[in-house]
Design goal:
Elements (H helix, E strand, L loop, with lengths): L20 E7 L9 E11 L2 E8 L2 E9 L5 E7 L10 E9 L3 E8 L6 E6 L1
Antiparallel strand pairs: 1-2, 1-8, 2-3, 3-4, 4-5, 5-6, 6-7, 7-8
């Protein structure tokens, strides 16, 4: 019996712990957001392959929750600003991937938008 296409037969090369810690990140946003922007993203393990992150922005802190993929080099989930009383609160989904030498790349996509916006980070 063969191995599923695109999967190695060995254990994952990366670790969930590669995400954990504090990152200096930059991102772009839709017109009118005055981006590119910079901030911090602090990621903690939440158990069962899940991570929880706190994304500090000029408009407040967003919470990211999601699972790490099979190869343990991608983290996908949802983000939102807790207790946001805005008429149209910003929330959505994200994908972040670990890269060599302490880097992450990915994107976030607010609900109601057709495209995602890039995110990059370093330790």
């Amino acid at each position: 019996m063969g191995v599923p296409f695109g999967r190695s037969i060995g254990p994952p090369a990366d670790k969930v712990e590669d995400f954990v810690g504090t990152w200096k990140i930059s991102w772009t946003g839709s017109v009118g957001t005055n981006c590119p922007c910079q901030g911090t993203l602090t990621i903690d393990a939440a158990g069962n392959g899940e991570l929880m992150g706190y994304w500090e922005t000029r408009s407040g802190t967003y919470v990211l929750r999601g699972k790490v993929g099979y190869d343990q080099n991608s983290w996908t989930g949802r983000f939102e600003k807790p207790n946001d009383q805005a008429d149209f609160p910003i929330k959505g989904q994200f994908l972040l991937m670990t890269r060599e030498s302490g880097k992450i790349t990915g994107s976030y996509q607010p609900l109601g938008t057709a495209i995602g916006f890039p995110v990059n980070g370093v330790r």
